[in-house]
Amino acid sequence: MRIDLFLWYTRIFKSRTIASNACKKGHVKIEAKSIKPSFDVFNGSSFSVKKKQILYNFHILDLPSSRVGAKIVDLYLKDLTPKSENEKKEILNKYKNNFKYESKPSKKERRDINEFLNE
């Protein structure tokens, strides 16, 4: 099965196009090597996905035949993400909504916000 299709089937990305673009940009890696969207994955493979500044690690348990529901993703995928990355995610979420303005942010303030969130 293609890696972009697997990422979409297991709900790591919202669409197959986004999964394919992430592979092309080098955000999906197997054994520290960037892979193409057409790379074939099998049971027992491990891969990492960089998404919103967080490096997730996964292990494939089984290959689904179609897109699966969010409740049963654990049957096909095991999350091996270290605690340090989960802590980083919590910190980002904590400070994400910390920008409170009385009115609409100016163009400069909006650029500062976007720069902070996209680092």
Question: What does this molecule look like?
Answer:
The structure is a single chain. This protein is of the alpha+beta class. It contains four helices and five strands; from the N terminus they run H-H-E-E-E-E-E-H-H. Strand 3 and strand 4 form a beta hairpin. The longest helix has 14 residues, at 83-96. It is elongated, with a radius of gyration of 17 Å.
Write the layout of secondary structure elements.
Elements: H1 3-9, H2 16-25, E1 28-30, E2 33-34, E3 46-51, E4 54-60, E5 77-79, H3 83-96, H4 107-117
Antiparallel strand pairs: 1-2, 1-3, 3-4, 4-5
Helix pairs in contact: 1-2
**Main pleated-sheet profile:** 5 strands, antiparallel
- Note poorly predicted spans: none
> What percentage of residues falls in helices of 4 or more residues?
25-40%
Distance from first to last alpha carbon:
33 Å
Q: What is the alpha-carbon Rg in Å?
A: 17 Å
Q: Element order, helices and strands?
A: HHEEEEEHH
Q: Assign an overall shape.
A: elongated
Structural class: alpha+beta
Number of helices: 4
The percentage of residues in β strands lies in: 15-25%
Tally of extended strands?
Answer: 5
* Strand line-up across the major sheet: 2-1-3-4-5
Write down the overall mean pLDDT. 89
Offer a quick outline of the entry.
With 119 residues, the chain is of the alpha+beta class. It is built from four helices and five strands, in the order ααβββββαα.
